[in-house]
Amino acid sequence: MSVIGLIDANNFYASVERAFAPELDRRPLVVLSNNDGCVVARSPEARELKIPIGVPLFQIRHLLDRHNGVALSSHYTLYDDMSWRFQSCLEDFTPDIEHYSIDEVFVKMPLSSLRSLSETGHEMRRQVGR
Fold this sequence. Notes:
Elements: E1 2-8, H1 12-20, E2 29-32, E3 39-42, H2 44-48, H3 57-66, E4 70-72, H4 76-90, E5 97-101, E6 104-110, H5 114-129
Parallel strand pairs: 2-4
Antiparallel strand pairs: 1-6, 2-3, 5-6
């Protein structure tokens, strides 16, 4: 018997940017679309400012300025590489993985006990974080 789980990396583009620039931690951060037109990703701090996905940068620039926020250009090659790294970490736990999107993976895990699945999930999170 097995169980299927969905693993979704939170705020993936913003998290990747922060992995290489820790000085961005705890600051509102938005990642912009091609040609820096619209917001395609937000950090939790940017969400707290009610910045929506898809809004043009010029409409929220004042919010970022007022709250020491940052707008960054997209780095899709970097996100793709980090997605591969994130998803390959999960293969240490199970070979039965379905890559769904750049930041989402379905995993099939043996069902032994709820506690061991929970512990495995916490260990997955720690390993991916490293």
